[in-house]
Design goal:
By secondary structure, the protein is an alpha/beta fold. The protein has helices at residues 12-15, 43-62, 69-78, 104-111, 172-184, 201-214, 287-305, 323-330, 395-406, and strands at 2-5, 16-20, 28-32, 95-98, 118-121, 134-137, 145-148, 161-168, 189-197, 217-227, 252-257, 285-286, 313-317, 336-340, 359-363, 371-375, 384-389, 412-417. The chain has 2 domains: 2-227, Rossmann fold (3-Layer(aba) Sandwich), CATH 3.40.50.2020; 252-417, Rossmann fold (3-Layer(aba) Sandwich).
């Protein structure tokens, strides 16, 4: 690895480690220490990382000094609570897009820092009775198709579009969505924001070629940029070893419904007809709506904090449902960690410094045809886990997940649902 740009002097070891994918399209994975997908994190670290990206966008992308940068860096290095704050001026009013599934929370948290913007995240979900306004492909991913279910007017303009992802290795995903948008709603400027940027000279040239071909400008902003070379040392097994666990261990199970705090979208999928909620940004959010969002989240998080029974708690988001669980985790008191399930199959090996030391796997309770994984939770690490589902699921479909989570010996497993309505 060769680091070429590190504008805030962030230590590499604070941002990521590495793991081996079980994926023939790409054999490696940057395991982020700041987004809460494959590793448990302090949720404030995730929010601060997104705010630092917003500060870097303001300074590098717009040439405007950001007075909040020094305070953000101090909080980042000291692991302090993120106090929030909207510091990008109203004159800057882009459309911000987060990539599913890994960057849905990062994109939303980046958007939080704008006074006047719109946000939505792409989704792998196929909704019933509704066609997406945009589609594009992410060839190297385990799940390749992205869909955008938004009012067309969000992108039917000439505003700057900011694409947010956790890392760029080739930049192919960003180029795909730029071409898709430009074919329907052309504009002059796009910005691609990522924590890590590992594009080679060849991949950077493809950005330049697309700029010339479409007559556009594509800015790139990152917290760390450079080059990586990957060498295969040995073959890995497709199937991970089972972790040893106490087969007699039994967790208490609770169900918590938060539908009264949130708004149904009246949208659902064929496999789970419970309705998605508006507050995720999947269907589009303005900065004004987002401020109202924060109030709802804080009220609901205060309620959920009262449901804690353990000293050490894990908040577990599911799939694309990452941002609201991250915000909850940041407001639920001390000794709370945040993480999410993932679709990515990763080789598990319990070695110091490796990015996937423990792992459990189960069919998704929302769609049993999708396999989900949780990594890096050793047994007995937490007293309790709050598992956040955007939509209510059939308790029978939760059984495989419960079986796997009990291997990690949580005394209490609390399932939290944000939508209890079912589509007709």
């Amino acid at each position: 690895m060769e680091v070429a740009e590190n504008p805030y002097g962030l230590p590499v070891e604070k941002l990521f480690t590495m793991a081996a994918r079980i994926n023939k399209k790409r054999s490696f994975l940057f395991v982020s220490k700041v987004i809460g997908k494959h590793l448990p994190i302090d949720a404030n670290k995730g929010l601060l990382s997104a705010a630092l990206l917003a500060a870097q966008y303001l300074e590098s992308g717009k040439g405007i000094k950001c007075s909040e940068t020094s305070d953000l860096l101090v909080s980042f290095f000291r692991n302090e609570r993120f106090s929030g704050g909207v510091f990008l001026p109203a004159a800057i009013n882009p459309v911000v897009i987060g990539f599913a599934e890994t960057a849905t929370a990062l994109g939303h948290a980046f958007f939080d820092n704008f006074q006047s913007a719109d946000f939505f995240h792409t989704t792998r979900e196929a909704l019933t009775c509704r066609e997406p306004e945009l589609t594009f492909e992410e060839e190297h991913s385990h799940a390749t198709s992205h869909r955008c279910y938004i009012p067309k007017e969000i992108i039917q303009n000439e505003r700057e579009i900011i694409l947010v992802d956790d890392e760029m290795t080739t930049g192919k995903t960003a180029l795909n969505i730029i071409q898709s948008i430009q074919s329907q709603c052309p504009r002059k400027i796009y910005t691609v924001v990522s924590i890590l940027d590992w594009r080679s000279d060849e991949h950077k040239l493809k950005f330049i070629q697309l700029e010339k071909e479409l007559g556009i400008t594509i800015q790139t902003i990152s917290l760390l940029a450079g080059r990586v070379q990957v060498k295969k040392l040995r073959e890995i097994e497709e199937k991970n070893k089972e972790i040893e666990w106490d087969s007699h261990f039994s967790s208490s199970i609770e169900f918590i419904q938060l539908a009264r705090f949130f708004t149904s979208s009246k949208q659902w999928t064929e496999r789970n007809r419970a309705e998605f909620i508006w507050e995720t940004g999947r269907f589009g959010l303005s900065s004004q709506q987002n401020q109202s969002n924060h109030q709802r989240i804080s009220i609901a998080a205060a309620f959920l904090r009262e449901q804690r029974t353990g000293l050490k708690t894990l908040c577990l988001g599911t799939g694309e449902f990452m941002y609201i669980p991250m915000k909850f985790a940041a407001e639920m008191g001390p000794d709370v960690s945040y993480q999410s399930t993932t679709r990515s199959p990763i080789h598990v090996e319990n070695e110091e410094g490796y990015g996937a030391r423990f792992g459990v796997t189960f069919p998704s309770p929302e769609d049993p045809e999708i396999t989900q994984f949780v990594y890096n939770i050793p047994p007995c690490e937490y007293d309790e886990v709050f598992v956040f589902f955007e939509r209510e699921v059939d308790p029978l479909h939760l059984k495989p997940m419960v079986t796997e989570l009990q291997k990690l010996q949580f005394k209490s497993i609390k399932f939290v649902f944000f939508s209890g309505n079912r589509g007709e």
